[in-house]
Amino acid sequence: MEIANDTQEKIHRLISSNAVVVFSMNSCCMCHVAKHLLFSLAVSPTIVELDQDEKFSGLDIQSLLFQLAGDGQFPIPAIFVGGKFLGSIEALISSHINGTLIPRLREAGALWL
């Protein structure tokens, strides 16, 4: 599926102008876990609820996120830190456990301490 350039530009602008962006679905329990972890670290991510936000709904966004994942799985939540795709819930939790999440959040400007 070919993705419209305006969709790609919209996503690129969003992820490049915010320290942390989470593409989520309100009905997804793992999305709630990811957001809770970020909030518990005093991070205020930009959250896009794909099932509620008309600007970011549709197959173009879902196709783009699927391509970014590159592993054949639909990455919801899709988490971007410092303009780069971190991954889904597994990547978020593993980077938190292995100690790479906090430095990455600091480098992106999402944490002050």
From TrEMBL:
* Signal peptide per UniProt: none
**May I have one GO cellular component term?**
cytoplasm
What does the UniProt keyword field contain?
Cytoplasm, Redox-active center
Residues of the Glutaredoxin domain: 20-85
Localization:
Cytoplasm
The keyword Oxidoreductase is annotated on this UniProt entry:
no
Q: Name the domain of life this protein comes from.
A: Eukaryota
Q: Does the keyword Amino-acid biosynthesis apply?
A: no
NCBIfam families tied to this protein: GlrX-like_plant
Protein family according to the UniProt entry? Belongs to the glutaredoxin family. CC-type subfamily.
Supply the name of the protein.
Answer: Glutaredoxin
